[in-house]
TrEMBL record:
Superkingdom assignment: Bacteria
InterPro entries (alphabetical): I/U_nuclsd_hydro_CS, Inosine/uridine_hydrolase_dom, IUNH, Ribo_hydro-like
Originating organism: Sulfitobacter brevis
One annotated GO molecular function: uridine nucleosidase activity
PANTHER family cross-referenced by the UniProt entry: INOSINE-URIDINE PREFERRING NUCLEOSIDE HYDROLASE, URIDINE NUCLEOSIDASE
Name by which UniProt lists this protein: Purine nucleosidase
Pfam family, one: IU_nuc_hydro
Record has Hydrolase as a keyword: yes
GO cellular component: cytosol
Domain (Inosine/uridine-preferring nucleoside hydrolase): residue spans on this chain: 6-303
UniProt keywords, alphabetically: Glycosidase, Hydrolase
Keyword ATP-binding annotated: no
GO process terms (BP): purine nucleoside catabolic process
Amino acid sequence: MSPQKIIIDTDPGQDDAVAILLALASPEEIEVLGITCVAGNVPLDLTSKNARIVCELAGRPDIKVFAGCDRPLGRDLVTAEHVHGKSGLDGPDLPDPTMPLAEGHAVDFIIETLRAHPAGTVTLCPLGPLTNIATALQKAPDIAEKAAKIVLMGGGYFEGGNITSTAEFNIYVDPQAADIVFKSGIPIVVMPLDVTHKALVTKPRNDAFRALGTQVGTAVAQMTDFFERFDIEKYGSAGAPLHDPCVTAFLINPELFSGRHINVEIETQSELTMGMTVADWWRVTDRPANATFINDLDADGFFTLLTERLARL
């Protein structure tokens, strides 16, 4: 079977970085056509810089990295330096990238790539706010019929929110964009906090990254060392959840995950619950299902896959 062609849309972020590394380490299953950057965890100039740092860390300066939207569709930008540090990639000491940004806007790259490939052959993998994806759909509605699916990290239901009491960060930053994406008709797979909070980097799992003895293994261990200080203090958990790598791992081995095909709506009106993913888990409404909402994973299998793949880089 030929590898899945994907576009990674991202706002790196330590966990975004690990998701990108996992994708680049898995060429049998995944062909990364390009990486599009959006403002989110940190402003756009840093997310587009960090994506190139990660590509060079993986030994893949050939990957095209595009800068995209620098603000949400209708709201002021909210960032998360309190989680990821001022650079967005605090932890390891990695050199500034030498590879340039690709020419052109991320939104145009998304549109042109989907139009250039046969329908159903390119998957969109958003790891941050959905501004780029929604803007592409607004600018070129025809691409909705071209995308194979969207596999995204965002939202939460039983776990509530991590930036407000009801909203997960990626959706909260640009709920209007999320609303557009969830109403697009494109098949969607959602990795919400309900599953990502089960992908915990415990000390033994982080020790396994460091024991790889490579620049990548050490960098990932240092990223999660930094990242986890916030989550351990906030949640009292045994380590940091690796949110975004769940997207990549699903592409490689979907059997690690389980969930339900349900209706998911995005709250865009109430400031109290702005950005909430209203998931009809119990199917109590007559709203049609529009997303596969993942709620569980084989955590040991996930970390075995991640460690094995990172060892390749």
